[in-house]
Every structure is written in structure tokens, then in C-alpha cells.
């Protein structure tokens, strides 16, 4: 079974504004609402690619009701924990001359709520895949990902972590199967700005030395680099296309990678399917559909990436 955990699901409010002006009244040209949060996006794309999965996480308030209702139509199972205080987030994604995001902080999650999550995770067994993805609400201690990994240590569960800074660094001693920082996040973890693939590979390998098994570094329009536990390094470019909305591209990449790896155990295939899913979502208004992903997969294969 595949499980995803989203501590902080969101409604993503994506608005397009022509020439956004700070401090002025701006009017939208287009507005859309998507069900978001990294784990939920991973769940949605996995299900698009034919991999059934269960999304775990916390929801609160009327926005939480809507998330719980809406994701029922996305093809995966959900088993959320309802929390009493606060609201699930509305994350604002402003598309104009530049892309700007305001991600909310999320509801108040108590120790009891967290215990409920641990009870659900206690069902996981050897061969299961667990995706821990995204930020955590302020009310939770930032050692939560490590505590989850510690509780599952030795059970043969493959754990994928897509998070930033300490949330990610602290899980490395538990040997996550895959981590996916982007190049900026990778630099941020070491307090440096990375220039070019050599530096990115060097710093990616440092995360491996700290315990990560496979490190996938995404670089938006510049593609991705994968450093595997078999000491191979793969680079993948991106197909040509018009970017419509890159929110969720990273999550789509994680989902594509997992689907590809589960299919035949090949890291190269996983990277290609992950890259195709990432670009296909960047080229779509919302998350990509299967046809688009497979079309870009073929393109990446033909172009020899
Ligand atoms: N502008 C783009 N053009 C083509 N592909 C893209 C673009 N942005 C993202 N992608 C694809 O999606 C992957 C993940 O995107 P990225 O923006 O690096 O992740 P994140 O959202 O986690 O920062 C990239 O490695 C690439 O394959
Ligand atoms: O949990 P965080 O880090 O605040 O991120 C949440 C946001 O990330 C997203 O999952 C998109 O993530 P990516 O663009 O990295 O794939 C949005 O749907 C959501 O608003």
C-alpha cells in the first residue's frame, strides 16, 4: 500500500492578475481553486497513474470540510483526522509578471491528534510506501517527521520525504528511501547558493552521506538530477512546452518517480516518469492527466534524456 501524509492540506487559490501592483487594488483575470498540500497532490497524481493510495492528514473548519469533500473525487482514499481549533489553509498563488505564493500556517493540532495519526501509521508493514510531504502547522514540534520515521524504523517501509530545512535534515539518519529538495532548498540547507550541476551534485551527495538513500534534486525549467544509492548520477532535461501553472510540479515529480520505481525498479525510468509528470503539471492549469504525462514521457525517451 502507498500512504501519503499531509499535515497541512490547503485550498490553493490560484489567481492571475495582469501587471500586479503592490499597494494598489488589483483585479483578477482568472481565478481557480484546487485541493492542495503536497501529500494530497502526490496522492492525486499517483492515482492518475493507476497507483491506488490512501491520504492521511489533518483537516479543520469549513475549509477542511471542503478539502475532505473535494478530494473524494480525485480517485484516492482519504482518512483524515479532524481537529477542533483553527482552519485548514487557503494558500494564495499569484500569477503575474512573477509568481508569488502566500502559504498559510494551518490549524492547531494537539498531542492527541498526533497520537491518532501514529495509530493509523502503526498499520504499515514491509513493502509499504509512505510519503511525508510539506510543511507542518506551527502547533506541531518540528521533530515530527523524525518521530514518525523512528516509529517505523526496521519495518521495511520505504519512506519518501519532501520537506525543507530542518524537517528534512533531521530525518536523514533514518535513511529515507527518497528525498526531493529543489536546488534552492538544497543550497538553503547548507547556507549557500548553488551554481551549476557540479555544485548541485556535490551538495546532493552530502545529503546522502548524512543518510539519504536516493536524492532527487529538481531544478524547475532546468530539469532534475538524481543521485542513487547505487552511486549513479542521472540528469534529465525538460521537454518544450508552455508553463501554465507550476504549483504542484514538484509533487507530481515525486508521484511519477514512485510510480516509475514501483513499476520495474529502474531509477532511470523513475526519473523519466517523474520528470514527465512534473513538466506535464507545469504545462497544465491544475495537476496533469495521464495522457499528457505519457506523451511527455515518450518525448523525453526519444530526445535521449
Ligand atoms: N518551467 C518548467 N518547464 C518544464 N518543466 C518544469 C518546469 N517547472 C517544473 N518542471 C518540472 O517539474 C519538476 C519539479 O519542479 P520544481 O519547480 O523544481 O519543484 P518544486 O515545485 O518542488 O520546487 C522539474 O524538475 C521539472 O521536471
Ligand atoms: O506545505 P507547504 O510547504 O506550505 O506547501 C504547500 C503548497 O505546496 C503545494 O503542494 C505545491 O507544491 P509544489 O509546487 O512544491 O509541488 C501546494 O499545493 C500547496 O499550497
TrEMBL record:
Keyword line: ATP-binding, Kinase, Lactose metabolism, Nucleotide-binding, Transferase
Domain Carbohydrate kinase PfkB: 9-288
GO MF term list: 1-phosphofructokinase activity; ATP binding; tagatose-6-phosphate kinase activity
EC number annotated for this UniProt entry: 2.7.1.144
Keyword ATP-binding: yes
GO biological process, one term: carbohydrate catabolic process
PROSITE patterns per the UniProt record, alphabetical: PFKB_KINASES_2
Any one GO CC term of the record: cytosol
Keyword Kinase listed: yes
Highest taxon listed in the record's lineage: Bacteria
Metabolic or biological pathway: Carbohydrate metabolism; D-tagatose 6-phosphate degradation; D-glyceraldehyde 3-phosphate and glycerone phosphate from D-tagatose 6-phosphate: step 1/2
Function: Catalyzes the ATP-dependent phosphorylation of fructose-l-phosphate to fructose-l,6-bisphosphate.
Family assignment from sequence similarity: Belongs to the carbohydrate kinase pfkB family.
Protein name per UniProt: Tagatose-6-phosphate kinase
Organism: Lacrimispora celerecrescens
Amino acid at each position: 500500500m502507498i500512504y501519503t501524509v499531509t499535515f497541512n492540506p490547503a485550498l490553493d487559490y490560484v489567481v492571475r492578475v495582469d501587471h500586479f501592483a503592490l499597494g494598489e487594488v488589483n483585479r483578477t483575470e482568472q481565478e481557480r481553486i484546487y485541493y492542495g498540500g503536497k501529500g494530497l497532490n502526490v496522492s492525486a497524481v499517483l492515482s492518475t497513474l493507476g497507483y491506488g493510495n490512501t491520504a492521511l492528514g489533518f483537516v479543520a473548519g469549513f475549509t477542511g470540510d471542503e478539502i475532505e469533500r473535494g478530494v473524494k473525487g480525485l480517485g484516492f482514499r482519504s482518512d483524515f483526522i479532524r481537529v477542533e481549533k483553527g482552519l485548514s489553509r487557503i494558500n494564495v498563488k499569484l500569477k503575474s509578471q512573477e509568481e508569488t505564493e502566500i502559504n498559510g500556517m494551518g490549524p492547531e493540532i494537539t498531542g492527541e491528534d498526533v497520537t491518532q495519526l501514529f495509530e493509523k501509521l502503526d498499520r504499515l508493514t514491509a513493502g509499504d510506501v509512505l510519503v511525508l510531504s510539506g510543511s507542518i502547522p506551527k502547533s506541531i514540534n518540528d521533530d515530527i517527521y523524525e518521530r514518525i520515521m523512528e516509529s517505523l524504523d526496521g519495518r521495511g517501509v520505504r519512506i519518501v520525504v519532501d520537506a525543507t530545512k530542518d524537517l528534512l535534515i533531521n530525518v536523514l539518519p533514518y535513511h529515507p528511501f527518497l528525498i526531493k529538495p529543489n536546488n534552492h532548498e538544497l543550497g538553503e540547507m547548507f547556507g549557500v547558493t548553488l551554481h551549476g550541476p557540479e555544485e548541485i551534485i556535490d551538495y546532493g551527495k552530502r545529503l546522502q552521506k548524512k543518510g539519504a538513500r536516493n536524492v532527487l534534486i529538481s531544478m524547475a525549467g532546468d530539469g532534475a538530477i538524481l543521485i542513487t544509492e547505487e552511486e549513479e548520477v542521472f540528469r534529465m532535461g525538460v521537454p518544450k512546452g508552455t508553463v501554465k501553472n507550476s504549483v504542484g510540479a514538484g509533487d507530481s515529480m515525486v508521484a511519477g518517480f514512485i510510480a516509475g520505481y514501483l513499476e520495474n525498479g529502474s531509477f532511470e525510468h523513475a526519473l523519466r516518469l517523474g520528470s514527465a509528470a512534473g513538466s506535464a503539471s507545469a504545462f497544465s492549469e491544475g495537476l496533469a492527466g495521464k495522457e499528457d504525462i505519457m506523451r511527455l514521457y515518450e518525448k523525453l525517451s526519444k530526445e535521449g534524456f
